[in-house]
Design goal:
heterodimer, A: 203 residues, alpha+beta, Nonspecific Lipid-transfer Protein, Chain A, B: Rossmann fold, 2 domains, two-stranded antiparallel sheet, binds S-adenosylmethionine
Chain lengths: 203, 251
């Protein structure tokens, strides 16, 4: 019980903190002021209720009143909710169920996922332009580097597991093993046939 | 709580005359008002926020309803209720202490909460509202400070609409003895020191620890609620009974 309360709290704080940095969030919230939207992920089945007001978004995990719109959506479809054209497809494919005003779904998805945050700008107010620019540049570089690195590590690890540690067989070994199994199979079949013949002769 | 024959009541562990308690409690909250929110976060390690979230979840509050946040102090619950009941709804923040009300009012204004919230200085024992008026009444960490709790519960029952509910969030009796031991140590040794350090006021926090010990336990409070007429009364233990949420309905 209190774990879901904790999760809701963290989610709420996170979203509202991000909204503080996003200059477009206020207008978007104003448009949805007074709207209550229920969301449940198909994979999780914990309902969440988003109470949207001028001031902020409140996230509850119980709500006994009427929502303006309730959606059930699979995790993979979350990102596509913003796209108006996708909505009908998602509903058809069963990845999205909507009860209530479908117009709200897209607006809501926009509010949560389409944040326009200029990190460099916010940072520069704290530490000055030059440092902020350098920091953002290096972070991007670092990120790029990390992606290449992690790919390399993946490759290395695969090599290590198959060649060095022999934890997993290599492709050739697997193929050879399959061949052996096939031969064994045909041999067994032959043996069974012979056995059959012998038994038939005897009876 | 039972009244002693000679018109005295508890103020923490001390026994004082009844009229005096109101004044003494007032002093406590006048002196902590300014630092109240920070102290709440520090002393409970932020956990009071989760207790309050649970309270909101159990409230069943809806758009357009009338809510009374009694002993509402700096208005944590009021803020949430105000956003949930929306423009057609109404929230009253009532507190006996005008220092707390002032802090509450300016905090909520700063957050942009206006329009559907009103502020009323009132004693829980004699609520200045008509009968059958509110859909929901909450009293969070407030009942403990009230001199005549039975009178307060009866007064709450009167102003609640039929079908409405009361939620009492309050410190209670821990369920397990290790928790109890740790908790006793924390509240009598650490709490007043922290109070001194942050708010320069160890006495108020000494009072806090003592008043918690004098408060009726889970079953007793449930019985008290039933006595004044509440139905389907139940309680939820939070954080191993350090805090309990009592819920009762008026039918
Ligand atoms: C610990 S604070 C709780 C504030 C707030 N509900 C919260 O949870 O953060 C207790 C409040 O109860 C108020 N109080 C004490 N006795 C009262 C009474 N008889 N009637 C109304 N309020 C009272 C105090 O002034 C104080 O603001």
């Amino acid at each position: 019980m209190s774990l879901t309360n904790l999760l809701c709290g963290l989610l709420e704080t996170g979203v509202n903190q991000l909204h503080q940095l996003d200059s477009s969030a206020v207008i978007k919230r104003k448009q949805l002021n007074g709207t209550i939207i229920g969301v449940s992920l198909k994979e999780l089945d914990i309902p969440l209720y988003f109470v949207i007001s001028d001031q902020q978004i409140d996230v509850l995990n119980k709500f006994e009143g009427q929502t303006d719109c309730t959606i059930r959506v699979s995790f993979s479809a979350l990102k596509q909710l913003q796209d108006n054209h996708q909505l009908t497809n998602l509903i058809k494919s069963g990845e999205l169920e909507v009860e209530g005003d479908i117009q709200l779904v897209q607006q809501f998805a926009n509010l949560l996922t389409d944040m326009k945050i200029d990190w460099e700008e916010h940072l520069s107010q704290k530490v000055g332009d030059v440092v902020a620019h350098k920091f953002c540049y290096h972070t991007k570089q670092l990120f790029k580097g990390a992606v290449t690195q992690s790919k390399a590590i993946e490759k290395q690890a695969a090599l290590y597991i198959t060649e060095e540690a022999k934890l997993a067989p290599s492709g050739l070994e697997v193929a050879y093993f399959c061949d052996q199994v096939n031969t064994l199979e045909t041999e067994t079949d032959k043996l069974l046939l012979k056995l059959d013949e012998k038994l038939n002769q005897q009876s | 709580m039972k009244k002693s024959p000679d018109n005295t009541t508890h103020f923490g562990f001390k026994t004082v005359e009844e009229d005096k308690k109101v004044e003494l409690v007032a002093d406590v909250f006048h002196s902590v008002a300014a630092k109240y929110d920070i102290m709440n976060d520090v002393l409970s390690l932020g956990i009071h926020r989760i207790w309050k979230r649970f309270t909101i979840d159990c409230s069943g509050v809806r758009k357009g309803q009338k809510v009374l946040d009694l002993a509402g102090g700096t208005g944590d619950l009021t803020a949430k209720f105000s956003r949930i009941v929306g423009e057609e709804g109404q929230v009253v923040l009532a507190d006996i202490n005008d220092s707390m009300l002032k802090v509450g009012r300016s905090k909520l204004r700063d957050k942009g909460i206006e329009g559907n919230v009103s502020y009323v200085q009132a004693n829980a024992e004699e609520l200045p509202f008509p009968d059958n008026h509110f859909d929901l009444i909450t009293i969070a960490f407030g009942l403990r400070n009230v001199t005549d709790k039975d009178k307060a519960l009866a007064s709450i029952y009167r102003v609640l609409k039929p079908g409405g509910r009361l939620l009492v969030l309050e410190f209670s009796t821990p369920l397990y003895s290790p928790v109890k031991k740790f908790y006793d140590f924390y509240s009598f040794n650490i709490l007043p020191k922290l109070g001194k350090l942050i708010a320069n006021d160890s006495e108020s926090y000494q009072y806090l620890a003592e008043s918690i010990r004098m408060h009726p336990d889970q079953e007793t409070l449930k019985e008290m609620m039933n006595q004044v007429g509440f139905d389907n009364t139940e309680y939820f233990n939070l954080s191993a009974g350090i805090v309990a949420l009592h819920r009762g309905y008026k039918y």
